[in-house]
């Protein structure tokens, strides 16, 4: 039996990209996955795909900017499977642009999704983990917070805020909870879909060397499968060609 088999794992941003790849990998290794994202049709299709392959999956439309949606996702895990072992807070957006462009609404959206969405997940899952005496937070951040470049100031700021909160949570968690941050570099996803043209051009160059989403999923699985008492705190996953 692996360190993943039988665990109940909730995943936000599960309808595509890294979240979808993580759901497929963990379900394939025996986890019961609880899928959350804003696109219910894609969630339903992903759950059906997992179940057809012999896995177990539940899903709920989840907008991480709504605290009650995160509460409902955690509740679904407990109602369906009796517990929650891992919360993967993966939902995120990167509406990058020059600060001079004053795309203030985009800044607010990134704060709401990338930062407040993670906090709402913590608020929903932490009491459950305390009650159980065990639990694991896995928060997706970014290498954008490790190497600051133009156009990504606010995006990197939200990701570094999550990095800071995660470290504080780790120190407060005690010896029964685990906290991991995963920092992907360039990954082939629809990340650039809603960016400004200049930002799309910047990201487009990175896509030439980008990793497949399942590379990040494997890093998440590595953290989850560790035995009790082992906390993998920080994982960076980037293409070898990325500076």
Describe the structure.
A seven-stranded parallel β-sheet has the order 3-2-1-4-5-6-7, sandwiched between helices. The protein is about 45% helix and about 15% strand. The chain contains seven helices and seven strands, in the order βαβαβαβαβαβααβ. The model has no long low-confidence stretch (mean pLDDT about 95). The chain has about 240 residues and is an alpha/beta fold. It is globular.
Low-pLDDT runs: none
Category by helix and strand content:
alpha/beta
Beta-strand percentage range: 15-25%
- CA(first)-CA(last) distance: 38 Å
Q: What's the SSE pattern?
A: EHEHEHEHEHEHHE
Strand elements, count:
7
The proportion of residues forming helix, as a percent range, comes to: 40-55%
* Rg, Å, rounded: 17 Å
**Widest sheet, order of strands:** 3-2-1-4-5-6-7
Query: Biggest β-sheet, characterized?
Result: 7 strands, parallel
Shape: globular
- In DSSP terms, counting alpha (H) and pi (I) runs of 4 or more, how many helices? 7
In round numbers, the mean pLDDT is 93
Quick structural gist:
This protein has helices spanning 17-28, 40-52, 67-81, 104-132, 153-173, 197-207, 213-224, and strands at residues 8-12, 32-37, 56-61, 86-89, 135-140, 177-184, 234-237. With 243 residues, it is α/β, with parallel strands linked by helices.
